[in-house]
Fold each of these.
Amino acid sequence: MSASPSGSQSLRLSFVLRWLGITLVALLALQMAVLLSAADWADGVFKQLLIERLVNQAPMGLIGLLLMLLGSRLDQPETARPPIRWLVCVISALLAILMIVVVPVSISGNQNLSGESDQTLEQQKGQLEMARQQSANPENVKMLGNQLTQAGQLPADASEDDKVKAAQAFIDKQLAQMEQQIKQGERQRNLAVNQRRFGGTLSAVILAVAFVLLALAAVI
């Protein structure tokens, strides 16, 4: 007795879904294998790169596992737990564990990187404060005016008042640039922290929950 057209279409669809899912999971494994081949666990930068790559690529694995499960459901709807569903369950559980491990590592890495950024900003603020103190000294301003004259930025016959005004304008410009650099550094730091917090840590938590649910769905 020949199979019905709808049954044949379901079989073809399940075949395509299953192998499409396997392909996505294999791509995830290959990308992680390439990164792990150059592993340096003592390097904090490598750990952050590994976490970012894992979290960014994990949704592809999640979709692949979901397609494998859907293909199995279409192909063998009456079979309780065929091997491919156990495979989906095991891989999902492993990825869920990895996401759980990623969370504390990501939090620790974020704190370290934030501390380094804060230290750099504090150094820049210290340099700015020192520059302000030096600019408040009339002797330093007068000396800078003479240097500007020697550099040809002021006429040789410029008066002392002109030299002081030119030196003060030069100092104000430098201070404004330093303040702008500090503000830009603070914005970049806040953006990086939020990106690692929401794009890394929070995403890992959500993915861990998704993989746990997928592992349960595979064996229910």
Amino acid sequence: MSQRKSNLLPILLSAVAIGVVGFVVWTYLLAPYFSYQAQLAELNGKIQDKMVEVVKAQQERAKRDRFEMLSLPSDQVAAASEYQRYLSELINKHRFEFGTNGSLKFQGANPVSAQGTKTAYAGKKDEAPAYTTLNFVLDAQAGLTNLTDLLKEFEESPLLHRIRSMTIKPAGEAKKGGGKKKEAFPVTVQMEIEAVIVGGSERRKTTLSGPDDVLVELNALTFLGHAPAGLLLVPWQVGPGGHLSPALQARYAAKADYSLIDRKNIFVGYVKPKKDTPPPPPGPGIEPTEKDDDPPYKGLDMRQYFKLVAITKTEDGDEAWLYNVAKNQFIRLKTSLGYKSFTIYDSMHDKKLISGKVLRIDYGAVYFEDGGHVYAIHTGESLKEAISNPVPSDEVLKMGLKVAALVPPSE
């Protein structure tokens, strides 16, 4: 073998060895590693997609829960009967009149599939409709003020219903509206009303509105077991179907002036509000007569009728609710600006009784300051009970409550 060939042999052997080692490293190390990374990235992508689907499903579940709380009873016959009774009471309350041709009629039920198509179902469980609409037609006469009041109460009712169409026409001569002294503009009203039964909802079988049947039964059992009654109904109270629902409280806080609809009558134009003129003085020997239009709560001590009814946790922190049982009025309390200060007036809103400032909201109690004194109102207590027992100064200091000018309770 020549000298040159003998020098090339080690080089060739080294190249073959490097090739073999590279092949082994790629085949058994690098290729599996890259394949694993690709599979891992694919799995992570699928996990992210599933997480998005879970969030969407949770949002849809929350929407369905809300719809079920507002749904009519699952029993279709009971739902139609109870809702028609609700409409009858509503139109009677607001002094609607049917006249000769007026009526309130049930137009039947329409099951709707999940695809949104109306169809007739054979009653099989696997063919249950997504929801069923109950249709009613109202043809009546009323004053424009009474119609406005009815629409306001209809919107605030915790039910899954709507007015699909409404036609309003002027009718006849003006008449007394709702027992008020001013005359209401008469109109003829035609409405198509639609109420919904959510498919598969078993929360209430025959009751039109209120807590779920299960909650009512559990509340009765806790009461029989000598536990505090009503605690299990708190979630319903602050839920979509309760009296303390956020949507309902937002409407109360808006304080919309619906009387403008009557004053800005689209049929006759804007009408200036009449100024109240004092009655003439009584003649000799004639005693002045008392007004018969005084509200029923006149003369009541509003501090006695404002009670702490709920303390809830929200994303923005704890909040509490005062409720006036005499005026059906709510006050929202928080430690943040906008809800920190509250004022309680007398029954006719002429004199300030309490100018409070919320200091702290604890479990079961709200601490507030008024005139340098600190008070604690507990759940179920009235403001009058709270201000009769101020918090001692040393306890205020121990709790770390900040008061600009703390006055001892004895002063």
Amino acid sequence: MLSARYVILTCMPTRSTQDSPDPLGVERQRLVEAEAEYRRARSEDYVARVIRDAAIVEAHRAGMSSSEISALIGDIGQPNVVRARRRAMTRGLATPGDLLSPADAVRASGLTPAELIAAVRDGRLHPVDIGGGASAFRPEDVNALRATAP
């Protein structure tokens, strides 16, 4: 008997939404990109999960509804969107003051979620274990990555 295999494709516009007249365009693009990286990641990939959850929070704060967020990232359901928002808020409180959370590292680096996750996977940026399976980044490492980014 053959087992079923599924492929999930996420289509993203090739042009930048930075210049889009849609005020939520950038948040939509970041959310879709973070979700694509999250799905590509191993289930224990903490950095990708945190970045995806933070993108959900930022999209919600920008004015997107839970149902729109759910539809953009693969119909995960509104209750799961709410859970992701709660996880992101709790994690933000757990990061020591002298370190950056993965979501803060995305913002500080100026990179996209996919670029930062790729830097971690390629070994160009090393997370610091802060206990409990959580990771954070040294600000100087993030700044050095920003300086070498294309």
Amino acid sequence: MSLEKNQPNPYLTLCQVAGSCILAGAAFGAVSNMIDGAISPYYFKTVMHWDFPDIWTAAVSQGLFEGLIYGTIFSIIFTTGFGLITKGKAGYGFAFTQLLKTIGFIGICWLCGGLFAILLTSINPDFYRKLFPITPKDGIEMLKFAWTGGSIWGGMIGGLLSSFLAVVMLKNRWLQSQETEE
């Protein structure tokens, strides 16, 4: 396989894309748990059964670890889709732009999950406590707990959806770019 002068090395590009996906997952997990851990350490203490002083650091580490796992799974799907769709003809920048859109989508899902849980808790706290019996009784602590749980679930659902939507968006964007070149 010979490459033209300006054509990117497809193998190097695939490695860059895969690595970026994994690092993006780790970064998103760490940052989202930085926020969630600061808002409700009680959530992590209760849900994770953690009983030690520095819950926040453990929450960030947990987010980093889970982000690496989810990022690796996403990387396999996205990088495979990228390679098959573009047939090695697209550069890293093309994939990175699509990856940024995907991270934005996951962030919106994370935010919506937290807001939805707060809304549910505000409208009907008794129902929320029945759904999640470990919820604190104090109103503010209950809202913090709801935000944290809701945002985590929102991020996970967003990650799952984005695994498929990112490939669809990638394909559509690639087809558009090919049409404009012709």
